[in-house]
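Write out this protein's structure.
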Amino acid sequence: MAEDVRIADRSWLDAPPTRTLVQALDLAGLDFRFVGGAVRDGVLGRPVADVDIATPALPETVLSALDRAGIKSVPTGLAHGTVTALVEGRPFEITTLRRDVATDGRHAAVAFSRDWREDAARRDFTMNALYADRDGGVTDFFGGIADARAGKVRFIGDPATRIIEDGLRILRFFRFHARYGLGKPDLEGLAACARLAAMIDRLSGERVRDELFKLLAAPDPLPAWRAMAEAGVAAHLLPDANADGLQAMVALEGALGLAPEVLRRLAALGGDAAQLKKRLKLSNRDAKRLIAIGAPGPRTVLIAHGAFGRALYGGEPDEVRDAALLGHVRAGTPDLPTLADFLGFLKTWREPKFPLSGADLRRRGVPEGAEVGRLLAAIELWWAMLDFKPGRAACLAELDRALLRARQPPAGAT
Protein backbone atom coordinates (compact mmCIF):
# COMPACT_ATOMS: atom_id res chain seq x y z
CA MET A 1 0.00 0.00 0.00
CA ALA A 2 1.17 3.55 -0.72
CA GLU A 3 1.59 6.35 1.82
CA ASP A 4 -1.52 7.94 3.22
CA VAL A 5 -2.82 10.15 0.41
CA ARG A 6 -5.92 12.30 0.32
CA ILE A 7 -7.36 14.09 -2.65
CA ALA A 8 -6.80 17.79 -2.09
CA ASP A 9 -9.43 19.20 -4.45
CA ARG A 10 -12.73 17.86 -3.16
CA SER A 11 -14.89 19.83 -5.58
CA TRP A 12 -16.10 16.72 -7.42
CA LEU A 13 -16.58 14.82 -4.16
CA ASP A 14 -18.61 17.65 -2.67
CA ALA A 15 -20.62 18.42 -5.81
CA PRO A 16 -24.38 18.15 -5.13
CA PRO A 17 -24.97 15.22 -7.55
CA THR A 18 -22.14 13.23 -5.93
CA ARG A 19 -23.42 13.95 -2.44
CA THR A 20 -26.95 12.93 -3.43
CA LEU A 21 -25.68 9.61 -4.73
CA VAL A 22 -23.49 9.01 -1.69
CA GLN A 23 -26.47 9.62 0.58
CA ALA A 24 -28.57 7.10 -1.37
CA LEU A 25 -25.89 4.41 -1.12
CA ASP A 26 -25.37 5.17 2.58
CA LEU A 27 -29.08 4.87 3.31
CA ALA A 28 -29.00 1.41 1.72
CA GLY A 29 -25.98 0.44 3.83
CA LEU A 30 -23.79 -0.24 0.78
CA ASP A 31 -20.02 -0.28 0.92
CA PHE A 32 -18.52 1.65 -1.99
CA ARG A 33 -15.51 3.64 -3.18
CA PHE A 34 -14.78 5.95 -6.05
CA VAL A 35 -12.49 4.34 -8.58
CA GLY A 36 -10.41 4.86 -11.70
CA GLY A 37 -10.05 8.08 -13.65
CA ALA A 38 -11.66 10.42 -11.14
CA VAL A 39 -9.31 9.25 -8.39
CA ARG A 40 -6.25 9.28 -10.68
CA ASP A 41 -6.99 12.81 -11.89
CA GLY A 42 -7.87 13.92 -8.38
CA VAL A 43 -4.48 12.71 -7.12
CA LEU A 44 -2.74 14.57 -9.95
CA GLY A 45 -4.74 17.75 -9.43
CA ARG A 46 -6.30 17.51 -12.88
CA PRO A 47 -9.94 18.32 -13.68
CA VAL A 48 -12.25 15.39 -13.01
CA ALA A 49 -14.80 14.48 -15.65
CA ASP A 50 -16.49 11.11 -15.25
CA VAL A 51 -17.00 9.75 -11.74
CA ASP A 52 -17.18 5.95 -11.38
CA ILE A 53 -17.96 3.92 -8.29
CA ALA A 54 -17.10 0.36 -7.27
CA THR A 55 -19.01 -1.69 -4.71
CA PRO A 56 -19.18 -5.27 -3.44
CA ALA A 57 -22.98 -5.04 -3.74
CA LEU A 58 -24.63 -6.93 -6.57
CA PRO A 59 -26.14 -4.84 -9.39
CA GLU A 60 -29.69 -5.79 -8.39
CA THR A 61 -29.01 -4.44 -4.90
CA VAL A 62 -27.64 -1.21 -6.38
CA LEU A 63 -30.71 -0.82 -8.60
CA SER A 64 -32.97 -1.31 -5.61
CA ALA A 65 -31.07 1.29 -3.56
CA LEU A 66 -31.30 3.84 -6.35
CA ASP A 67 -34.98 3.17 -6.86
CA ARG A 68 -35.74 3.70 -3.16
CA ALA A 69 -33.88 7.03 -3.29
CA GLY A 70 -35.82 8.14 -6.35
CA ILE A 71 -32.71 8.18 -8.52
CA LYS A 72 -33.11 7.17 -12.15
CA SER A 73 -31.00 4.18 -13.10
CA VAL A 74 -30.07 2.43 -16.33
CA PRO A 75 -28.91 -1.23 -16.35
CA THR A 76 -26.12 -0.46 -18.83
CA GLY A 77 -24.15 -3.69 -18.37
CA LEU A 78 -25.69 -6.05 -15.86
CA ALA A 79 -23.69 -9.02 -17.13
CA HIS A 80 -20.55 -7.14 -16.15
CA GLY A 81 -22.11 -5.65 -13.03
CA THR A 82 -22.54 -2.08 -14.26
CA VAL A 83 -25.45 0.20 -13.44
CA THR A 84 -25.61 3.88 -14.45
CA ALA A 85 -27.17 6.30 -11.99
CA LEU A 86 -28.44 9.62 -13.37
CA VAL A 87 -28.35 12.37 -10.76
CA GLU A 88 -29.33 15.89 -11.83
CA GLY A 89 -28.47 14.94 -15.40
CA ARG A 90 -25.03 13.62 -14.50
CA PRO A 91 -24.20 9.93 -15.09
CA PHE A 92 -22.34 7.81 -12.53
CA GLU A 93 -21.29 4.26 -13.42
CA ILE A 94 -21.56 1.91 -10.44
CA THR A 95 -19.90 -1.46 -10.94
CA THR A 96 -19.78 -4.54 -8.74
CA LEU A 97 -16.29 -5.75 -7.83
CA ARG A 98 -15.16 -8.38 -10.35
CA ARG A 99 -12.56 -10.89 -11.31
CA ASP A 100 -11.92 -12.23 -14.81
CA VAL A 101 -12.89 -15.84 -15.33
CA ALA A 102 -12.00 -16.17 -19.02
CA THR A 103 -10.75 -13.85 -21.78
CA ASP A 104 -10.34 -14.24 -25.53
CA GLY A 105 -8.28 -11.17 -26.36
CA ARG A 106 -11.35 -9.02 -26.89
CA HIS A 107 -13.99 -9.93 -24.29
CA ALA A 108 -13.90 -11.14 -20.71
CA ALA A 109 -16.27 -13.35 -18.76
CA VAL A 110 -16.37 -12.11 -15.17
CA ALA A 111 -17.47 -13.28 -11.76
CA PHE A 112 -18.53 -10.89 -9.04
CA SER A 113 -16.27 -10.48 -6.04
CA ARG A 114 -16.10 -8.89 -2.62
CA ASP A 115 -12.33 -8.47 -2.68
CA TRP A 116 -11.08 -4.95 -3.46
CA ARG A 117 -7.56 -6.08 -4.34
CA GLU A 118 -8.92 -8.76 -6.67
CA ASP A 119 -10.95 -6.08 -8.45
CA ALA A 120 -7.90 -3.83 -8.68
CA ALA A 121 -5.76 -6.65 -10.12
CA ARG A 122 -7.99 -7.00 -13.19
CA ARG A 123 -7.55 -3.34 -14.19
CA ASP A 124 -5.04 -2.43 -16.87
CA PHE A 125 -2.60 0.14 -15.41
CA THR A 126 -1.50 0.89 -11.89
CA MET A 127 -2.68 4.51 -12.11
CA ASN A 128 -6.20 3.28 -12.95
CA ALA A 129 -6.43 0.94 -9.95
CA LEU A 130 -6.89 3.65 -7.34
CA TYR A 131 -9.88 3.81 -4.99
CA ALA A 132 -11.04 6.71 -2.83
CA ASP A 133 -13.50 6.84 0.02
CA ARG A 134 -16.03 9.63 0.51
CA ASP A 135 -13.45 11.67 2.44
CA GLY A 136 -10.90 11.49 -0.37
CA GLY A 137 -8.64 8.92 1.27
CA VAL A 138 -6.95 6.86 -1.45
CA THR A 139 -6.31 3.11 -1.46
CA ASP A 140 -3.46 2.05 -3.76
CA PHE A 141 -2.63 -1.65 -4.14
CA PHE A 142 0.02 -1.52 -6.89
CA GLY A 143 1.96 1.72 -6.63
CA GLY A 144 -0.35 3.64 -8.91
CA ILE A 145 0.05 6.95 -7.09
CA ALA A 146 3.83 6.94 -7.54
CA ASP A 147 3.46 5.91 -11.19
CA ALA A 148 0.88 8.61 -11.88
CA ARG A 149 3.06 11.28 -10.33
CA ALA A 150 6.11 10.02 -12.25
CA GLY A 151 4.19 9.92 -15.55
CA LYS A 152 4.76 6.17 -15.88
CA VAL A 153 2.02 4.14 -17.53
CA ARG A 154 2.69 0.67 -16.12
CA PHE A 155 0.67 -2.51 -16.54
CA ILE A 156 -0.52 -4.35 -13.45
CA GLY A 157 1.31 -7.68 -13.50
CA ASP A 158 2.96 -9.09 -16.60
CA PRO A 159 2.32 -6.75 -19.57
CA ALA A 160 2.11 -9.55 -22.16
CA THR A 161 -0.42 -11.46 -20.06
CA ARG A 162 -2.58 -8.37 -19.67
CA ILE A 163 -2.46 -7.64 -23.41
CA ILE A 164 -3.35 -11.22 -24.33
CA GLU A 165 -6.45 -10.79 -22.12
CA ASP A 166 -7.51 -7.78 -24.20
CA GLY A 167 -5.61 -6.54 -27.26
CA LEU A 168 -7.16 -3.09 -26.90
CA ARG A 169 -4.74 -2.52 -24.02
CA ILE A 170 -2.00 -1.97 -26.60
CA LEU A 171 -3.75 1.16 -27.83
CA ARG A 172 -4.71 2.19 -24.30
CA PHE A 173 -1.04 1.98 -23.29
CA PHE A 174 -0.08 4.59 -25.88
CA ARG A 175 -3.21 6.66 -25.34
CA PHE A 176 -2.55 6.94 -21.61
CA HIS A 177 1.10 7.71 -22.29
CA ALA A 178 -0.02 10.58 -24.53
CA ARG A 179 -2.15 11.94 -21.70
CA TYR A 180 -0.10 11.16 -18.62
CA GLY A 181 3.34 9.97 -19.70
CA LEU A 182 6.57 11.78 -18.95
CA GLY A 183 9.66 10.78 -20.89
CA LYS A 184 9.82 7.46 -22.72
CA PRO A 185 7.17 4.75 -22.30
CA ASP A 186 7.66 1.96 -19.80
CA LEU A 187 10.12 -0.44 -21.45
CA GLU A 188 8.41 -3.68 -20.38
CA GLY A 189 5.03 -2.44 -21.55
CA LEU A 190 6.49 -1.15 -24.80
CA ALA A 191 8.22 -4.44 -25.56
CA ALA A 192 5.02 -6.41 -24.94
CA CYS A 193 3.01 -4.06 -27.18
CA ALA A 194 5.57 -4.49 -29.96
CA ARG A 195 5.58 -8.27 -29.63
CA LEU A 196 1.79 -8.55 -29.69
CA ALA A 197 0.99 -5.71 -32.11
CA ALA A 198 -0.81 -8.05 -34.52
CA MET A 199 -3.62 -8.39 -31.96
CA ILE A 200 -4.80 -4.96 -33.10
CA ASP A 201 -5.93 -6.54 -36.37
CA ARG A 202 -8.58 -8.51 -34.45
CA LEU A 203 -10.14 -5.46 -32.81
CA SER A 204 -13.34 -3.91 -34.05
CA GLY A 205 -13.11 -0.64 -35.93
CA GLU A 206 -15.24 1.08 -33.30
CA ARG A 207 -12.88 0.17 -30.45
CA VAL A 208 -9.82 1.19 -32.48
CA ARG A 209 -11.45 4.48 -33.48
CA ASP A 210 -12.39 5.39 -29.92
CA GLU A 211 -8.85 4.83 -28.62
CA LEU A 212 -7.24 6.59 -31.58
CA PHE A 213 -9.49 9.61 -31.22
CA LYS A 214 -8.70 9.87 -27.52
CA LEU A 215 -4.98 9.66 -28.28
CA LEU A 216 -5.20 12.34 -30.97
CA ALA A 217 -7.15 14.59 -28.59
CA ALA A 218 -4.17 14.75 -26.20
CA PRO A 219 -2.40 18.12 -26.10
CA ASP A 220 0.62 16.61 -27.86
CA PRO A 221 0.09 13.06 -29.13
CA LEU A 222 3.27 13.06 -31.21
CA PRO A 223 5.69 11.36 -28.75
CA ALA A 224 3.19 8.56 -28.16
CA TRP A 225 2.56 8.21 -31.89
CA ARG A 226 6.27 8.01 -32.67
CA ALA A 227 6.67 5.36 -29.96
CA MET A 228 3.81 3.44 -31.59
CA ALA A 229 5.53 3.68 -34.95
CA GLU A 230 8.89 2.53 -33.61
CA ALA A 231 7.21 -0.42 -31.89
CA GLY A 232 5.48 -1.46 -35.12
CA VAL A 233 2.05 -0.77 -33.64
CA ALA A 234 1.13 2.18 -35.87
CA ALA A 235 1.55 0.01 -38.97
CA HIS A 236 -1.33 -2.17 -37.77
CA LEU A 237 -3.40 0.90 -37.01
CA LEU A 238 -2.83 3.31 -39.92
CA PRO A 239 -0.15 1.88 -42.23
CA ASP A 240 0.07 5.02 -44.41
CA ALA A 241 0.28 7.50 -41.54
CA ASN A 242 2.74 10.39 -41.76
CA ALA A 243 4.00 11.41 -38.33
CA ASP A 244 5.65 14.51 -39.77
CA GLY A 245 2.25 15.77 -40.87
CA LEU A 246 0.89 15.29 -37.35
CA GLN A 247 3.92 17.07 -35.89
CA ALA A 248 3.42 20.05 -38.19
CA MET A 249 -0.29 20.26 -37.39
CA VAL A 250 0.28 20.14 -33.63
CA ALA A 251 2.89 22.87 -33.97
CA LEU A 252 0.58 25.02 -36.11
CA GLU A 253 -2.29 24.62 -33.63
CA GLY A 254 0.03 25.70 -30.85
CA ALA A 255 1.28 28.73 -32.77
CA LEU A 256 -2.28 29.86 -33.47
CA GLY A 257 -3.65 29.06 -30.01
CA LEU A 258 -6.09 26.45 -31.33
CA ALA A 259 -7.47 23.59 -29.26
CA PRO A 260 -6.76 20.05 -30.51
CA GLU A 261 -9.19 18.81 -33.15
CA VAL A 262 -9.20 15.07 -33.77
CA LEU A 263 -10.35 14.89 -37.41
CA ARG A 264 -7.99 17.69 -38.40
CA ARG A 265 -5.10 15.78 -36.85
CA LEU A 266 -6.25 12.54 -38.45
CA ALA A 267 -6.25 14.30 -41.83
CA ALA A 268 -2.72 15.53 -41.13
CA LEU A 269 -1.62 11.94 -40.56
CA GLY A 270 -2.79 11.25 -44.11
CA GLY A 271 -4.23 8.16 -45.72
CA ASP A 272 -7.15 7.49 -48.01
CA ALA A 273 -10.41 8.79 -46.52
CA ALA A 274 -12.45 5.87 -47.85
CA GLN A 275 -10.09 3.37 -46.27
CA LEU A 276 -10.08 5.31 -43.00
CA LYS A 277 -13.87 5.28 -42.96
CA LYS A 278 -13.89 1.51 -43.37
CA ARG A 279 -11.04 0.80 -40.93
CA LEU A 280 -12.29 3.12 -38.19
CA LYS A 281 -16.04 2.73 -38.82
CA LEU A 282 -16.36 6.49 -39.18
CA SER A 283 -19.82 8.01 -39.32
CA ASN A 284 -20.90 9.43 -42.66
CA ARG A 285 -20.62 12.90 -41.17
CA ASP A 286 -17.03 12.39 -39.98
CA ALA A 287 -16.01 10.75 -43.25
CA LYS A 288 -17.47 13.66 -45.24
CA ARG A 289 -15.63 16.15 -43.05
CA LEU A 290 -12.38 14.22 -43.38
CA ILE A 291 -12.67 14.32 -47.17
CA ALA A 292 -13.40 18.08 -47.10
CA ILE A 293 -10.43 18.80 -44.85
CA GLY A 294 -8.14 16.69 -47.00
CA ALA A 295 -9.01 18.52 -50.22
CA PRO A 296 -8.15 22.20 -49.58
CA GLY A 297 -9.00 23.39 -53.13
CA PRO A 298 -9.77 26.96 -54.22
CA ARG A 299 -11.06 28.12 -50.83
CA THR A 300 -7.56 27.78 -49.40
CA VAL A 301 -6.18 29.83 -52.30
CA LEU A 302 -8.73 32.56 -51.54
CA ILE A 303 -7.65 32.61 -47.90
CA ALA A 304 -4.02 32.94 -48.94
CA HIS A 305 -5.01 36.06 -50.90
CA GLY A 306 -6.99 37.53 -48.02
CA ALA A 307 -10.42 36.92 -49.59
CA PHE A 308 -11.76 35.43 -46.39
CA GLY A 309 -15.46 36.02 -47.00
CA ARG A 310 -15.38 34.47 -50.45
CA ALA A 311 -13.48 31.50 -49.07
CA LEU A 312 -16.12 30.89 -46.42
CA TYR A 313 -19.23 31.63 -48.47
CA GLY A 314 -21.32 28.51 -49.09
CA GLY A 315 -19.00 26.28 -47.08
CA GLU A 316 -18.85 24.81 -43.60
CA PRO A 317 -16.68 27.28 -41.64
CA ASP A 318 -14.91 24.62 -39.56
CA GLU A 319 -14.15 22.55 -42.65
CA VAL A 320 -12.82 25.58 -44.51
CA ARG A 321 -10.64 26.50 -41.53
CA ASP A 322 -9.23 23.00 -41.13
CA ALA A 323 -8.66 22.56 -44.85
CA ALA A 324 -6.70 25.81 -44.86
CA LEU A 325 -4.60 24.65 -41.91
CA LEU A 326 -3.90 21.33 -43.60
CA GLY A 327 -3.00 23.09 -46.83
CA HIS A 328 -0.40 25.16 -44.98
CA VAL A 329 0.92 22.06 -43.21
CA ARG A 330 1.37 20.29 -46.53
CA ALA A 331 3.05 23.31 -48.06
CA GLY A 332 5.62 23.21 -45.28
CA THR A 333 5.74 26.98 -44.81
CA PRO A 334 2.67 28.15 -42.88
CA ASP A 335 1.76 31.81 -43.33
CA LEU A 336 1.00 32.48 -39.67
CA PRO A 337 -0.02 36.16 -40.02
CA THR A 338 -2.58 35.35 -42.73
CA LEU A 339 -3.94 32.36 -40.83
CA ALA A 340 -4.21 34.42 -37.64
CA ASP A 341 -6.10 37.14 -39.51
CA PHE A 342 -8.40 34.52 -41.01
CA LEU A 343 -9.15 32.99 -37.60
CA GLY A 344 -9.99 36.44 -36.27
CA PHE A 345 -12.29 37.05 -39.26
CA LEU A 346 -13.93 33.68 -38.72
CA LYS A 347 -15.03 34.63 -35.20
CA THR A 348 -17.24 37.41 -36.55
CA TRP A 349 -18.30 35.75 -39.83
CA ARG A 350 -22.02 35.63 -40.56
CA GLU A 351 -22.95 34.21 -43.94
CA PRO A 352 -24.66 36.89 -46.05
CA LYS A 353 -27.89 36.10 -47.88
CA PHE A 354 -27.91 36.51 -51.64
CA PRO A 355 -30.65 39.11 -52.39
CA LEU A 356 -32.10 37.46 -55.51
CA SER A 357 -34.09 34.31 -56.22
CA GLY A 358 -35.53 32.48 -59.20
CA ALA A 359 -38.75 34.49 -58.83
CA ASP A 360 -36.86 37.66 -59.84
CA LEU A 361 -35.86 36.05 -63.12
CA ARG A 362 -39.33 34.68 -63.83
CA ARG A 363 -40.78 38.15 -63.35
CA ARG A 364 -38.41 39.27 -66.10
CA GLY A 365 -39.67 36.62 -68.46
CA VAL A 366 -36.96 34.01 -68.02
CA PRO A 367 -38.69 30.61 -68.26
CA GLU A 368 -38.10 27.80 -65.80
CA GLY A 369 -35.05 25.75 -66.66
CA ALA A 370 -31.28 25.70 -66.69
CA GLU A 371 -31.04 29.34 -67.78
CA VAL A 372 -32.46 30.48 -64.42
CA GLY A 373 -29.78 28.64 -62.51
CA ARG A 374 -27.01 29.84 -64.82
CA LEU A 375 -27.99 33.49 -64.56
CA LEU A 376 -28.49 33.36 -60.80
CA ALA A 377 -25.07 31.75 -60.36
CA ALA A 378 -23.47 34.44 -62.53
CA ILE A 379 -25.03 37.29 -60.54
CA GLU A 380 -24.19 35.59 -57.25
CA LEU A 381 -20.56 35.27 -58.33
CA TRP A 382 -20.50 38.97 -59.29
CA TRP A 383 -22.00 39.83 -55.89
CA ALA A 384 -19.47 37.65 -54.02
CA MET A 385 -16.54 39.11 -55.98
CA LEU A 386 -17.61 42.51 -54.63
CA ASP A 387 -17.47 41.07 -51.08
CA PHE A 388 -21.28 40.77 -50.86
CA LYS A 389 -21.69 44.56 -50.70
CA PRO A 390 -24.23 45.18 -53.52
CA GLY A 391 -27.78 45.31 -52.23
CA ARG A 392 -30.91 43.99 -53.87
CA ALA A 393 -31.35 46.99 -56.17
CA ALA A 394 -27.77 46.74 -57.42
CA CYS A 395 -28.13 42.99 -57.97
CA LEU A 396 -31.35 43.51 -59.95
CA ALA A 397 -29.59 46.12 -62.06
CA GLU A 398 -26.76 43.70 -62.78
CA LEU A 399 -29.35 41.04 -63.65
CA ASP A 400 -30.95 43.42 -66.14
CA ARG A 401 -27.56 44.09 -67.71
CA ALA A 402 -26.89 40.35 -67.94
CA LEU A 403 -30.27 39.79 -69.62
CA LEU A 404 -29.59 42.60 -72.05
CA ARG A 405 -26.22 41.11 -72.96
CA ALA A 406 -27.80 37.69 -73.42
CA ARG A 407 -30.39 39.12 -75.85
CA GLN A 408 -27.88 40.97 -78.01
CA PRO A 409 -26.86 39.14 -81.20
CA PRO A 410 -23.27 37.93 -81.37
CA ALA A 411 -20.78 40.26 -83.00
CA GLY A 412 -20.83 39.90 -86.80
CA ALA A 413 -24.31 38.38 -86.86
CA THR A 414 -26.83 39.85 -89.28
